[in-house]
């Protein structure tokens, strides 16, 4: 909240009291958040130096250091933002970081920035008296180059003024990387599953070995800058009536003893028949149902998921359960693969008939899809249910066949809800395909270095995977977003979401 001093004279005593109360509340909130982040920063620094002596193998130590450096950069970015909100920092108070010049052997491309006009406001013709040069490091896979941003200085002899094109805003203020280089690091880490120590080696072969500590700082800062975009994507997803939900385990490191414990990456996406193509990942320390409830909040719609008990509390609070027919089919598939069960074979044949109908209705409108399901799928499923009830009466209670039958019979209402709702798909395969890249990349990650690191990975992967779902190249998308984000209005952040994004002309 910005208050001009001259405006205070026109305020009444009551208005001044209200303004003072608001400002005090805001300051208390910022103070508490700043204290929390400062404490987290201190803990991360202790972990950074303690990691040198902990019993990690070289690969683990490298990954841990990367995550700590990224966490430190993210916390520093958030602290800096809070400090800028509470008080303006004068140029004298701000220390200018020193950095080594970029290698002279790298190819350079000049980008000139000049004022729109060389005529001063007083009407005199200005003279060019010099220029400022800032170099940014760019990267196209396999090749480094340097962008030389040249800002000419123009002076007016009559009114003694200096005119210069403004410095372009960047995600990392006064840093050397271009948006293209930052996008490359993020895509390599979170889409191609290349840890930062491997990227350091790759960059070294291209002509400039960027220390992985520097790469980690870039990753941390970018993660903090992209978080508002991910928050907007979550809000967008929760506007849909139908959602998919799933989760997969991810190891998370506990630096105190060098051991890992099982954390979980939750995934949520609009229904397969919804117009929006997006997914949001939510990294949590456990598989407890409270995490799903926290993500969904006040949302009330149909959630397609497996039979995990963590979702049950949400169903009692107004969320409609839609089961996964593929999970029910899988029980009979496993049964048939084990002993060639005739019961399983018959059940699989009926499931196949239903899925054949689903392939036919994919391209139909919702009313047409509902009509076909009612006419063709409903009789098949009703007959299958009656058959399952009869078969269950004839098999032993603790047999594998009984377990397969019970799984479907106990969840039959949820499993067949799609027949009466054309926006519901018959299974949860849509989200399982969105979470599969995460599962494939775990062998390269080994673990998440911290809760913050896991949340940052979830945020960036949400944008990358959502971009892919909309047919975008993740690198091109992130490069453009990181270029535009520093000057993009917060009120129009939705324009940068993957399903709405249009490349800058």
Explain what you see.
By secondary structure, the protein is α/β, with parallel strands linked by helices. Among the domains are: 103-170, no CATH class; 325-419, no CATH class. It has 15 helices and 9 strands. It has helices spanning 13-50, 58-86, 179-190, 196-206, 212-237, 289-296, 312-315, 325-339, 342-361, 366-392, 400-410, 412-415, 429-445, 451-469, 474-484; strands spanning 108-113, 127-140, 143-156, 161-164, 242-254, 259-270, 280-284, 302-304, 320-322. The protein has a 5-stranded mixed beta sheet, with helices on both faces. A hairpin with a 2-residue loop joins strand 2 (127-140) and strand 3. The radius of gyration is 29 Å and the shape is elongated. The two termini are 34 Å apart.
What's the arrangement of secondary structure elements?
Elements: H1 13-50, H2 58-86, E1 108-113, E2 127-140, E3 143-156, E4 161-164, H3 179-190, H4 196-206, H5 212-237, E5 242-254, E6 259-270, E7 280-284, H6 289-296, E8 302-304, H7 312-315, E9 320-322, H8 325-339, H9 342-361, H10 366-392, H11 400-410, H12 412-415, H13 429-445, H14 451-469, H15 474-484
Parallel strand pairs: 1-3, 5-8, 8-9
Antiparallel strand pairs: 2-3, 3-4, 5-6, 6-7
Sheet bearing the most strands, described? 5 strands, mixed
Order of helices and strands: HHEEEEHHHEEEHEHEHHHHHHHH
Strands side by side in the biggest sheet: 7-6-5-8-9
- Assembly state of the chains shown: single chain
User: Helix count, per DSSP?
Assistant: 15
Structural class by SSE content = alpha/beta
Q: Which regions have little confidence, pLDDT < 50, spanning 5+ residues?
A: 50-64, 88-94
Average per-residue pLDDT, rounded, comes to: 84
Distance between the termini: 34 Å
Please state the overall shape, judged from the principal axes of the Cα atoms. Answer: elongated
Would you report the number of β strands? 9
Report the β-strand fraction as a percent range.
Answer: 5-15%
Percent of residues in helices:
40-55%
Radius of gyration: 29 Å
């Amino acid at each position: 909240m910005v208050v001009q001093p001259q405006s205070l004279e026109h305020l009444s005593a009551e208005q001044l009291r209200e303004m003072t109360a608001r400002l005090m509340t805001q300051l208390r909130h910022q103070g508490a958040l700043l204290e929390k982040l400062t404490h987290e920063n201190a803990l991360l620094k202790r972990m950074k130096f303690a990691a040198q002596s902990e019993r990690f193998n070289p690969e683990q130590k490298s990954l841990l250091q990367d995550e700590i450096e990224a966490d430190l950069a993210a916390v520093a970015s958030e602290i800096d933002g809070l400090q800028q909100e509470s008080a303006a920092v004068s140029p004298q108070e701000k220390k200018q970081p020193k950095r080594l010049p970029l290698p002279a052997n790298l190819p350079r491309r000049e980008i000139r920035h000049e004022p729109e006009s060389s005529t001063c406001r007083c009407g005199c013709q200005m003279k060019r008296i010099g220029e400022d040069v800032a170099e940014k490091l760019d990267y196209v896979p396999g090749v480094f180059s340097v962008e030389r941003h040249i800002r000419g200085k123009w002076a007016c002899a009559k009114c003694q003024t200096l005119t210069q094109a403004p410095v372009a805003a960047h995600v990392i203020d006064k840093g050397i990387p271009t948006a293209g280089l930052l996008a490359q690091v993020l895509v390599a880490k979170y889409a191609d599953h290349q840890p930062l120590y491997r990227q350091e080696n790759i960059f070294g072969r291209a002509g400039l070995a960027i220390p992985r500590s520097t790469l980690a700082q870039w990753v941390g800062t970018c993660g903090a800058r992209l978080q508002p975009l991910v928050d907007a994507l979550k809000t967008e997803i929760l506007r849909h009536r139908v959602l998919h939900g799933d989760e997969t385990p991810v190891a998370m490191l506990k630096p105190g003893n060098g051991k890992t414990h099982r954390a979980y990456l939750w995934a949520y996406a609009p229904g397969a028949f919804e117009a929006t193509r997006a997914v949001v990942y939510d990294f949590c320390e456990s598989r407890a149902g409270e995490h799903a409830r926290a993500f969904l909040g006040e949302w009330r719609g149909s959630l397609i998921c497996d039979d995990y008990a963590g979702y049950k509390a949400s169903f009692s609070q107004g969320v409609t359960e839609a089961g996964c027919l593929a999970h029910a089919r899988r029980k009979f598939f496993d049964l048939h693969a084990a002993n060639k069960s005739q019961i399983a074979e018959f059940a699989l044949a009926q499931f196949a008939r239903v899925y054949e109908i689903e392939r036919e209705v994919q391209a139909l409108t919702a009313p047409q899809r509902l009509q076909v399901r009612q006419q063709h799928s409903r009789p098949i499923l009703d007959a299958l249910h009656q058959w399952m009830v009869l078969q269950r009466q004839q098999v032993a209670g603790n047999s594998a066949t009984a377990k397969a039958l019970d799984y479907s019979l106990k969840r039959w209402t949820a499993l067949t809800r799609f027949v009466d709702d054309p926006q519901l798909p018959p299974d949860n395969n849509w989200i399982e395909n969105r979470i599969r890249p995460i599962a494939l990349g775990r062998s390269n990650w080994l673990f998440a270095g911290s809760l913050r690191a896991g949340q940052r990975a979830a945020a960036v992967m949400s944008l990358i995977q959502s971009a892919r779902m909309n047919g975008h190249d993740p690198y091109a998308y992130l490069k453009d977003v990181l270029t535009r984000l520093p000057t993009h209005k917060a009120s129009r952040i939705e324009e940068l979401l993957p399903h709405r994004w249009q490349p800058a002309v």
